[in-house]
Amino acid sequence: MTDWRKRVFLNWVLLGASVVLLVCLVLLGNWQLRRLDWKTELIHAVETRAFGEPVPAPAKSQWPDVSAASHAYMRVSAEGRLLGGKSLFVKALTELGSGFWMMQPLERNNGEILWINRGFVPAAYRTSADRDDGTDRKGVIVTGLLRISEPGGTLLEKNAPEENRWYSRDTRAFSRQAGLGDTAPFFVDADHTRAPGAFPRGGLTVIDFRNNHLQYALTWYAMALLLAGGIGYVIWLSRRPPTPDDD
C-alpha cells in the first residue's frame, strides 16, 4: 500500500471516530437543553411553594405520596409538642459559619411525629447545659419549609449513629436513634421567630438552584461545530487527487 493509500485509510478511520464523537456532542447538547427545561420548571415550582401561604404538613396517610418532585420546599405548618431530650445535631456550614443543625422531634396533636430542623447553632451550643431544647413545651406551632429526608450521609462523610455523628438529615435514622418508631419521611426547616441573635437560628434554608444548562449546551454545540469543521477538512483531504509526491 502506497503512503497515499495509507493516509486515505487513516483519514477514513479518523473520520468514523470523529462522526461518532460529533453525534455524542450533539446528544450532550440536547440533553443539557432538556435539563434546562427541567431546572426552569423546578425553580418555578420551588419558588411557588416556598413563598406561598403555609399549608398543614402532610398527615400520615399522605406520607407515601410525599416526594421531592411534588413537596420539596413547600411551605407548611405543624402544631404539637416538642419532645425534649431527643435533639440531634447535624454538621452544618452556613452563612453564620460552621456548627450544627439542631434537629428535634415534634409530636403533633394527633400523635404523629415529625422532625423539625429548629435551625443553626454554634458548636458550643451543642454541649451547653442551659440550651433551649423545648422540654415539655406544648402548643408549639412550627412554620417552615418541607424538606425530604437525606439518608445515609453526604458523598464524603457517612452518618455514624453509634458515635452520634451526623452529616445529613436522615429522619428514619434519627427516629431509630431516638426510639420513636414510625415518623414522617420528611422534616421541616423552621422559620426564625425568636430574637435576631438567638439560637437556634432558623430561616437559613438556601433556595438557590444553579441553572447553567444553557451555557453547557452551547459549549457542547460549539465543540460539535468545531469538530464538524475538522471532519469537513479531512473529507476534503481524502478527496484531493494524489500528487507524484504522495506515491
List key phrases describing it:
7 strands, 5 helices, 247 residues, alpha+beta
- Lateral strand order in the biggest sheet: 2-4-5-7-6
Separation, N- and C-terminal Cα atoms: 9 Å
- Radius of gyration using CA atoms only: 28 Å
What proportion of the residues form beta strands (DSSP E)? 15-25%
**Pattern of helices and strands:** HEHEEEEHEHEH
Number of domains: 2
Family: Belongs to the SURF1 family.
InterPro entries: Surf1/Shy1, Surf1/Surf4
Protein name: SURF1-like protein
GO cellular component, one term: plasma membrane
Structural account:
The N and C termini lie close together (9 Å). The chain is an alpha+beta fold and 247 residues long. The radius of gyration is 28 Å and the shape is elongated. It is 37% helix and 21% strand. It has a 5-stranded mixed beta barrel with strand order 2-4-5-7-6.
SSE layout and pairing:
Blueprint: H1 3-50, E1 55-56, H2 68-71, E2 75-82, E3 88-94, E4 97-108, E5 113-121, H3 123-126, E6 140-148, H4 171-178, E7 186-190, H5 213-239
Parallel strand pairs: 1-2, 5-7
Antiparallel strand pairs: 2-4, 2-6, 3-4, 4-5, 6-7
GO cellular component, one term: plasma membrane
InterPro entries: Surf1/Shy1, Surf1/Surf4
Protein name: SURF1-like protein
